[in-house]
Write a structure and sequence with these properties.
By secondary structure, the protein is mainly α. It has a single domain, classed as Ferritin. Helix content is about 65%, strand content about 0%. The N and C termini lie far apart (about 50 Å).
């Protein structure tokens, strides 16, 4: 009973973020060279207190499960024949490293803001989120269909995270988190462009 208000508040802020104007900037190629697309360097995890407003909180609490879902997708791809492609594996490895770095920074900012981590979207079908249902469906498809389906999930994840980053930068309150959202947006643009050139 006491948690419904905060959940509604977070859901409302998320909805506002989702409808924020989106534009996708394109950068380096996925299929053009042998090296993974570069991503911006991560900033040190915050160790000093930060003040998070409702938008900041909603952004972090949504991007964390989105990143975790994407990492689960990459784990699954490693078990399928597509994972034996050395160049593709290297590129997915770069995406994994970037997402793991983001998770450390996001959780660090939650801790610095003295805000507990909550997956208020568990079981929800949120745009851009790879769910258990998606992974179960992927496990049941023939190998030839795995990569095209994975690309669709990955593209949706990248595009939706960019929308959320724009919303955080326009409505967020924490300078530290707004800066992180800017770096994430740049990384997603590079990953999205690389994916487009490699498919």
């Amino acid at each position: 009973m006491t948690t419904r208000g905060p959940v509604r508040r977070i859901a409302g802020v998320v909805a506002a973020l989702v409808v924020t104007a989106l534009a996708v900037g394109l950068a380096q190629g996925w299929g053009g060279g042998d090296e993974p697309a570069a991503v911006p360097s991560a900033a040190p995890v915050s160790t000093t207190p930060v003040l998070l407003n409702g938008t900041d909180d909603a952004f972090i609490q949504l991007v964390i499960p989105m990143d975790e879902g994407l990492l689960a997708l990459i784990d699954h791809l490693g078990t399928r024949p597509v994972g034996s492609d050395a160049r593709l594996a290297a590129r997915l490895g770069a995406v994994r490293a970037a997402h793991e770095s983001e998770l450390r920074e996001l959780r660090g900012l939650l801790a610095a803001g003295n805000v507990p981590e909550q997956n208020v979207h568990e079981g929800h079908q949120m745009p851009g989120m790879v769910t258990d249902a998606h992974l179960a469906e992927l496990r049941g498809v023939p190998d030839a269909e795995v990569w095209p389906r994975a690309v669709a999930l990955l593209r949706a994840h990248l595009e939706q995270t960019m929308v959320l980053c724009r919303g955080e930068q326009s409505a967020g309150g924490s300078p530290e988190l707004k800066a992180l959202a800017g770096r994430i947006q740049q990384a997603r643009a590079a990953e999205l462009s690389a994916l487009a050139e490699g498919t």
